[in-house]
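Side project, low priority. Logging it here so it doesn't get lost.
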Amino acid sequence: MIQQGLLLLLWLSSSALYAAKADVIDATVSCNRSCTFHVTVRHADSGWDHYANQWQIVAADGAILATRVLYHPHETEQPFTRSLSGVNIPAQLQQVTIRAGDLVHGFGGREIQLALPPRAD
């Protein structure tokens, strides 16, 4: 009985460590001279110690073009969408990757490849 209780306690205390990584499930972009991104993230936020804390816009060569910091857990708002405006994207880029990260796992969940619309320079 004690062994079963110990296993249950270990499972409950470590469940936050094994929650899924942050996934980008949708993203849109509109561009004129700069771009505005709307990104939807899903993550099993479990409080201040484990929540999705950022999403990034990344070029094909791995360069981070912009980061949207998320300052608090979204335990009761899943999935959630946040925006980032004023992002300057090099004119030669036609596509970017959107990825999300959390405090425990960092990046590694579902990413989205997003085609960029033609821009007015």
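Brief comment: DSSP finds one helix and seven strands in the chain.
Revisit when time allows.
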